[in-house]
Specification:
mainly alpha; Recoverin, domain 1; single chain; 145 residues; globular
């Protein structure tokens, strides 16, 4: 991480805005770094969707928009184009943001798709790959209707 990302990460993790990172905040940072180091970001996000959602919701609006995602997605090796794919699949309200319910559906579908993909072909390394796989599976199911 460069200085810009380190400072942004510090600001995101300084939940009480006191200029310091306490133990819980430090623990979250270590978990994020370890998940990234070991390519298990999708598992971390799926198992900790609420704190991840709150972390990505940088303005406290109870939604994650493209600007927030572009600014913070680096924590989980995601890009803005990945978020657009995620929005296309999970933005039920059509507001071009993910609320907590939509984000939770995204994480649950990722877990299901990842399990199915592992069963069929092997491990996925990125959340967007899971979403792409899930979208293709959905398209195939609609073709069968």
């Amino acid at each position: 991480m460069g200085k810009k990302h380190i400072m942004l990460t510090f600001d995101m993790l300084d939940w009480d805005a006191d200029g310091e990172i306490g133990f819980e905040e430090f623990y979250m940072m270590v978990c994020i770094l370890l998940s990234s180091e070991h390519d298990v970001e999708e598992t971390f996000i799926c198992h900790h969707f609420l704190p991840v959602f709150e972390l990505l919701d940088m303005d406290g609006s109870k939604t994650i928009n493209l600007k927030e995602f572009k600014a913070s997605g680096f924590l989980f090796n995601l890009k803005g184009s990945d978020f657009k794919k995620i929005l296309n699949l999970f933005d039920i309200t059509g507001d071009e943001c993910l609320n907590l319910s939509e984000f939770q559906k995204f994480t649950m579908m990722c877990m299901d798709a990842q399990k199915e993909f592992k069963r069929k072909r092997g491990k996925l390394h990125r959340l967007v790959d899971i979403c792409t796989y899930f979208a293709k599976e959905e398209d195939e199911l609609h073709l069968l209707d």
